[in-house]
Amino acid sequence: MGIIAILSSPSSFAHNGEMEKIRAVIAGGSGIFHYEVEKHKDIAEALTRFQQANVQAIVILGDRALTSATFEHIVEKDLLKGMDIPLAILPAGDNNIVAENFGANCPEPHLALKALLENHQKGNLLTHVTEIPLIKLEGVRGVGYLYGLFFCAGEVIKQKNLFKRKIYGKNLFKGIRNWLNILILIQSAYRQALGKNKMGKNKLEEAIRINRNQRGAVVGHFFMLLITTLDKSFWGVSIGQEKKQDKAHFISVENTPKAILATGKLMLGGNYHGIDHVGNIIAEIQHARIVLQTPFVLDGSYYETDETGELFVTVTNRLKFIKLS
């Protein structure tokens, strides 16, 4: 059994006492190299030390873009020097959608960590490893560019609870709750879109311009614009479509009652596959140019574009990730 590295961000858990529980779980384990990150520059030192210690896996435990910053250091600075070290993403607030995609099903971060360490002790941690490409966003205000696994824009990002929700275990109650949440979202979005269309209240500043794979640009108002290399989106809804290794899933849903209702039916069925109606597109892309004036989400965190309003989305380096369950 090799050494497992844990990269955590105490500031992510400053208000709920979770960090002390995490430290207690780590103290009760063995073969663990724990590094607590306080600043962005700390990530470089942590990854360098992990590489020197020849760790078997790296566990990322923290929100506030810790995951994206770790991706950046691995890709841009090659701090692992070509080492093939898989990453485990645990729930930590705004990255819960990503963590859930990789099999996390514990409601609290320290419980997810405890389950992971138990698998490590049994030698089962690396039983299921998958390789997934990242997406790179260029044109982000304040930072220039970011790496992540899913990008989302449109009316849906106003539902901030969607990106902060907890992860729950696999049971019938979870399925019912997800179904009800989707139903509430679609009903609300349908009514709002119906009102805007009747009154002509779609605001020009909320329009989004999309140019995918160098095709002609499309300008419109969207309920949802999703670009991801993950297999599932919100509430565990499967993307459904097949994609090539170097591609990302692309889904757009116009902010019209008909388009929202049609996509809502697919979401309630648990699978986006079958989007083939007017106002809705599902495809695979290598890159895209997005022009927007509204905020957007990357891996659960909110950002804005720089003054040009242009984002360039590119499918880039593949990394290995641990499937937790």
Distance between the termini: 19 Å
Beta strand %: 25-35%
Order of helical and strand elements: EHEHEHEHHEEEHHEEEEHEEEEE
Largest sheet: 6 strands, antiparallel
* Multimeric status of the protein: single chain
Number of E-state strands: 16
Structure, described:
The protein is of the alpha+beta class and 325 residues long. Helix content is 30%, strand content 28%. It has helices spanning 18-27, 42-52, 66-76, 96-101, 109-122, 160-164, 172-199, 257-268; strands spanning 4-8, 32-36, 57-61, 87-89, 129-140, 144-148, 150-153, 208-212, 218-220, 222-228, 248-254, 280-285, 287-291, 296-298, 301-303, 310-322. Helix 1 runs parallel beside helix 5 (109-122). The longest helix has 28 residues, at 172-199. It is globular. The model has no long low-confidence stretch (mean pLDDT 89).
Secondary-structure topology with pairs:
Elements: E1 4-8, H1 18-27, E2 32-36, H2 42-52, E3 57-61, H3 66-76, E4 87-89, H4 96-101, H5 109-122, E5 129-140, E6 144-148, E7 150-153, H6 160-164, H7 172-199, E8 208-212, E9 218-220, E10 222-228, E11 248-254, H8 257-268, E12 280-285, E13 287-291, E14 296-298, E15 301-303, E16 310-322
Parallel strand pairs: 1-2, 1-3, 3-4
Antiparallel strand pairs: 5-6, 5-16, 7-10, 7-14, 8-9, 8-13, 10-11, 11-12, 13-16, 14-15
